[in-house]
Specification:
124 residues; mainly beta; 4-stranded antiparallel beta sheet; 11 strands
């Protein structure tokens, strides 16, 4: 099960930065692509970032491109999402997910493992 390291949630001010961490346990991590998804209150699940199994290819949805960066450390079975210049519209529950393939396309929601989610609130 993909589990976030810090499930307690985070409150930050607009313009600040935050890094989310997701540790994979109970399944193989390094051979598979990972993504970050989010769900804002009252909205559907949104794919926001993907990274291939080796970590050299990343893709982002337009609303976060240039502000968010996904990376991974396969030796530590860990996925990261560095979020800069956060905005109120980034407020959501963020999930890390695993796919049963080495590469994921933008918008792909056909994952097989999902973490519990971490609440990120951006507010002044």
């Amino acid at each position: 099960q993909a589990q976030p390291v810090d499930p307690g949630g985070d409150l930050v001010q607009p313009g600040e930065s935050l890094t989310l961490t997701c540790v994979g346990s109970g399944y193989a991590f390094s051979p598979y692509a990972m993504s970050w998804l989010r769900r804002a209150s009252g909205k559907g699940l949104e794919w926001i970032a993907g990274i291939n199994s080796a970590g050299w290819r990343t893709d982002y949805t337009a609303s976060v491109a240039g502000r968010f960066t996904a990376t991974r450390d396969n030796d530590k079975n860990t996925l990261y999402l560095q979020m800069n210049n956060l905005k109120a519209e980034d407020t959501a529950v963020y999930y890390c997910v695993r796919f049963s393939k080495s590469y994921v396309n933008e918008g792909d929601l056909d994952y097989d493992y999902r973490g519990q989610g971490t609440q990120v609130t951006v507010s002044s």
